[in-house]
């Protein structure tokens, strides 16, 4: 790599690192937030999902925004919005203010990920591009897993508020690196921002999530639930129809004609829904149910990170020779078995006494399964599409993974039976394991490791 390429990769990786880190920091901070600001399970769901609604709805259109206004400019705006929202979360006097700030933070996060990927795909090519994307994927995955550890330390030693300020330093570093980058920003004068698609996507997700989260409180018979849920369904359907007709769709449905891309994203739905659900129920239950300190709750899953760091590159290399199907089949099923081992946790669990026999085995098996899954899944989805479309293919897969987490967290009350007590924790564990197993079966049935396909994602032109 040239000096400029190394600098671009550092900027792209750190910018995305911020977004992925914060997405998991929140899990370990939820009990402390509840103790200080109040609110029940629904409030905790909204704190997580407010971020995912705006992130999931806008992450695709953000790619077009970066094409119109310039990737570096949009990246800087995203960093500023994300940083300002983080400060707003840290200063929030009530759950309502915190939830609004989380939604704004999701907007910033949506601007960061596509812009950083676009920087990589436009400045790297061939084997060097694959290597750069691999480094980016590895760092963002580590950020997702390490988030609870870092957040737990801040919650215990300082306050949950400081856990949301850990983004400030890396954001400052990225802005300094951008200032040192003598790189002409690239724009596409013919690019089009799908404003209607973004609005429809946001309304659709928000309506569905509101109905799912508030249904346990208001009941299915409530007009509020029926109206918001109905608006969400209608907006989502209109969104899909609009994407079929849009000149430059933010969600190019033509990509799903490619078999491995389509089946890889179906597997993504189940796998990442399970990861979101298991991460939340484990992190929150250890603190609220078992009385474990936030730092220890975060450290509980750290061995899985070490497994990924140690084995990811080797798994990626072997999967490159053997194909992704075997790994995407076995990996989620092994991860699901690891999650099932969480059922060894007893009602009187004490971290120092019981961690080694009741929790560590599951964490290690889960880490092995996740390692076998993540890199091959990314390779299958991106490898199914020609390199010129890898940016939008990755953005679609990223958005689908976030929306999967969004929906499963919205359904949390129904999954755990209304309360995250010991029995609710065990229900969440079983559902997570089932979702992972389904992800493995879907991969076995669908993935064929085909060569990259060329796809025309533009809407068909009308002829007179």
TrEMBL record:
Keywords: Membrane, Transmembrane, Transmembrane helix. Pfam families: MFS_1. The keyword Transmembrane applies. It is a multi-pass membrane protein. This is MFS transporter. InterPro entries: MFS, MFS_dom, MFS_trans_sf. It is found in: Cell membrane. PROSITE patterns: MFS. GO terms for cellular component: plasma membrane. The keyword Transmembrane helix applies.
């Amino acid at each position: 790599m040239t000096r400029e390429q190394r600098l671009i990769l550092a900027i792209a990786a750190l910018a995305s690192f911020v977004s992925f880190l914060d997405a998991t920091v929140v899990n370990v901070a939820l009990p402390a937030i509840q103790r200080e600001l109040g609110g029940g399970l629904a409030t905790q769901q909204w704190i997580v999902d407010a971020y995912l609604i705006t992130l999931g709805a806008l992450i695709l259109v953000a790619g077009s925004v970066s094409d119109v206004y310039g990737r570096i400019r949009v990246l800087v705006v995203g960093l500023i919005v994300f940083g300002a929202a983080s400060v707003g979360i840290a200063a929030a006097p009530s759950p309502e203010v915190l939830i609004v700030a989380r939604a704004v933070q999701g907007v910033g996060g949506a601007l960061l990920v596509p812009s950083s990927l676009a920087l990589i795909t436009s400045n790297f090519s061939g084997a060097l591009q694959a290597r750069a994307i691999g480094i980016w994927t590895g760092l963002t995955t580590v950020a997702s897993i390490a988030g609870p550890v870092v957040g737990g330390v801040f919650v215990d030693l300082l306050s949950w508020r400081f856990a949301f300020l850990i983004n400030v330093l890396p954001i400052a570093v990225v802005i300094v690196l951008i200032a040192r980058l003598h790189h002409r920003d690239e724009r596409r004068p013919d690019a089009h921002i799908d404003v209607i698609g973004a609005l429809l996507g946001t309304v659709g997700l928000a309506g569905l999530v509101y109905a799912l989260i508030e249904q346990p409180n208001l009941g299915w018979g409530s007009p509020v639930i029926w109206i918001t849920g109905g608006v969400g369904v209608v907006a989502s359907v209109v969104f899909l129809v609009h994407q079929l007709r849009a000149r430059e769709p933010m969600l190019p449905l033509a990509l799903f004609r490619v078999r491995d891309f389509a089946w890889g994203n179906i597997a993504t739905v189940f796998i990442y829904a399970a990861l979101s659900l298991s991460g939340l129920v484990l992190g929150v239950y250890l603190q609220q149910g078992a009385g474990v300190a936030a730092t220890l709750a975060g450290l509980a899953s750290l061995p899985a990170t070490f497994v990924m760091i140690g084995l990811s590159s080797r798994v990626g290399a072997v999967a490159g020779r053997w194909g992704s199907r075997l790994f995407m089949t076995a990996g989620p099923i092994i991860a699901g078995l690891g999650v099932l081992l969480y059922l060894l946790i007893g009602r009187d669990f004490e971290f120092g006494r019981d961690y080694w026999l009741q929790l560590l085995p599951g964490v290690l098996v889960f880490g092995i399964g996740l390692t076998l899954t993540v890199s091959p899944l990314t390779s299958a989805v991106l490898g199914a599409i020609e390199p010129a479309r890898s940016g939008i293919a990755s953005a679609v897969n990223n958005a689908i993974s976030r929306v999967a987490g969004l929906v499963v967290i919205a359904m949390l009350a129904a999954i755990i039976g209304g309360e995250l007590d010991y029995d609710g924790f065990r229900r969440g564990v079983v559902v997570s394991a089932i979702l992972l197993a389904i992800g493995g079966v879907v991969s076995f049935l669908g993935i064929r490791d085909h060569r990259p396909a060329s796809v025309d994602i533009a809407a068909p032109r009308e002829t007179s």
